[in-house]
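We treat protein structure as text, and this decision shapes the records that our systems exchange. Such a record has a labelled line for the sequence and another for the C-alpha cells. The record that follows is passed on verbatim for readers who wish to inspect the format:
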Amino acid sequence: MQVAIIDSGGANIGSVRYALERLGVDSVLTRDWPVIQRAARVILPGVGAAAVAMARLRDADLARRIGTLQQPVLGICLGMQLLFDSSDEGGTPIPMLGIIPGKISAITRGTDARGATLRVPHMGWNTLEPEQPDPIMDALGQPPWMYFVHGYAAPISAHTLASVDYGQRYSALVRKDNFYGAQFHPERSAGDGARLLDNFIKLTRAKE
C-alpha cells in the first residue's frame, strides 16, 4: 500500500513520513494528481497560514480536485481546517476546500478549571472526548492523549467524532464520508497517535 502525502508546504511533512515508516507504510510526497488519485490513502498535512496553503493547492490545480477523491483522506492540523468551507484566519474570510460544512474561527482565550487564563495558541498535550464511534478511534486510550498546536479551530457539529476542551469545546477529530480531519498531530502523539494512523491505514474505502 502506498500513501500519497499532498505537498501543501507544511512543516510537519517529514514527521508524518517518519510516522508512516514506523508503521511499515510506504509514502510519497507529491502534487501530481494522477499519483494522488491512484494512492490507496491520502494525507493532507499542514502547518502555517491557510491562505498560503490554499494558494499552493490552487497553483497545483488540486483545490478543485481533492473533494472528488474516493479513498480515505486524512487532513492533519491545518490540513483538517482546509477541508472546511472557510476560515477567519487573517481577519478576512478565506474560501477553503468546502468538503466539510463549517467555518474555522480563532480560539477564544478562556480559563481552565482552576480559573487560570489559557494561552493561545493551544499548544501541548490534551485529551479527546469521543462524540460518536468510528473505526479510526478503535483501541485508543481511555481517554486518548494527543498533541495540539493551533490557534484556530472548527466548531462542534454533526461531523465531529471527538472534541477537545480548551476553554471551550472544539472539534478535534471530524469525518464526512471518506474525509477525516485531525486537529492534533497524530505523528507527534506517541502511542495513541500511532494507533490512529494505523487505524486510518486499515480503513475500508467509503464506496466499497
Q: What stands out?
A: The chain has one domain: 2-202. The helical segments are 13-22, 33-38, 50-59, 78-82, 190-202. The two ends are 17 Å apart (CA to CA).
